[in-house]
Design a protein that fits this description.
With about 160 residues, this protein is mainly β. It has one domain: Immunoglobulin-like, CATH 2.60.40. About 10% of the residues lie in helices and about 35% in strands. The chain is built from 2 helices and 11 strands; from the N terminus they run αβββββββαββββ. The chain has helices at about 1-15, 100-105; strands at about 45-50, 55, 60, 65-70, 70-75, 80-85, 90-95, 115-120, 130-135, 145-150, 155-160. It has a 5-stranded antiparallel beta sheet with strand order 2-11-10-7-8, with no helix packed on it. Strand 10 (about 145-150) and strand 11 (about 155-160) form a beta hairpin. The longest helix has 15 residues, at about 1-15. It is globular.
Length: about 160
């Protein structure tokens, strides 16, 4: 009976974690410039790109836009944004691929080191939120935004960015 309980416990942990794929070592640095204040109103700024999230390993939905306001660039998740609460280490990233979900292997949709830049830890699992994009990030190099579980290298969802 104890053995059955132990096996059941292990299976439950695997099913409810980010992914069964172990995290790869990642030397990508996190931006210290995550904007912690209130959301920026896009109507008074220039919209650079927009996109809509599609699910990866977990349900993720809502919109994203990159704006330029007063010489600074921000990534904004809209009020309809929502992702799974299953991730222990979720971060917001910009990625070089326009089609992360289509170009990576399910179920984890693991990212390759050097293909992304981390903007900041995800502030909340739903609702509007804003993240500053560091000045040294060349937006021409990044074609999508994603919610990524750093600990298990699992992409929860991604949005192709279109100008």
């Amino acid at each position: 009976m104890k053995r059955l309980y132990a096996i059941s416990s292990v299976l439950a942990l695997l099913m409810f974690g980010c992914s069964s794929t172990p995290s790869q070592s990642n030397s990508t640095t996190e931006s210290p410039n995550a904007k912690r204040g209130a959301s920026i109103v896009a109507s008074s700024s220039d919209v650079i790109a927009t996109g809509s999230f599609v699910a990866g390993e977990h349900s993720t939905k809502g919109g994203v836009q990159i704006i330029n306001q007063n010489g600074k660039r921000y990534l904004q998740l809209d009020r309809q944004f929502e992702t799974s609460t299953s991730g222990p280490d979720l971060v917001v990233v910009l990625h070089r691929s326009a089609n992360i979900i289509g170009e990576t292997k399910p179920p984890a949709h693991a990212l390759q080191q050097g293909s992304y830049v981390i903007l900041a830890p995800l502030k909340q699992f739903n609702g509007a939120q804003t993240y500053e994009i560091p000045a040294e990030v060349n937006l021409n190099d990044y074609k999508s935004a994603a919610i990524w579980c750093r600990r298990f290298n699992a992409t929860f969802g991604a949005a192709t960015l279109k100008a």
